[in-house]
Design a protein that fits this description.
Helices cover 65% and strands 0% of the residues. The protein is mainly alpha-helical.
Amino acid sequence: MALVHEFEQSGNWLFRRRGWLPVLFLLPALMHLWLAGPDILHYQPGKEFIYLGVGLLGLLIRAVTIGRTPRGTSGRNINRQKAAELNTSGIYSVVRHPLYLGNYFMWIAPVFMLNSAWFFIIFSLVYWIYYERIMFAEEQFLRNKFVEQYDLWSAKTNAFLPSFKNYRKSDLEFSFRNVLKREYHGLTNMIIIFAFVDLARHYFTDESVSLSPLWLWSLIAAACIWITIRVLVKTTDLLTVSGR
């Protein structure tokens, strides 16, 4: 099989599993937590506020993306590639894969809690290899569907490193309701991973089943937000936006 087809095939396979496959990285994280000592893993509230900020930066990038995209694009679909149109304005004039850039910050933030440079480096390399295949498969789909329009856009827009030199304002208004409807799972999942790492840290260092104050209150806040938005989505049309 030619490499181009192998990359596309493996990228589509990973695309369909991108929602849960990165969670497997929690296994080596647990191993690190088990082997590391309490001096390495002690609770540092000042630094961990910064780590939370890094994760929220990733969520913000996703929110900026989702808030200005139409229905049929930039979705959470997992079964197949789809795109009703090619996004080339707004954040998509800055970087071709802003959602995966946001995901990186949301995943790397809990990694900082491990206080391990080698784990950070290995995670970043594996993340790049993993998502590079997915991005390749997505771009093959887009190139086949939009042809010249895609080639012109990709020639001047970086895949993963943002560049504002060709920024073009989006034609769509920002929809905060659409962001709430589509991204509340992301916030909750990120906080759960933070809390999981903190819980494991406590267990392996002092054999207690507890959460540090920052992550306990963050988990409570995230749970309240999740329940509130879930009820609104399931029982009302308050967060439904036409064409989004």
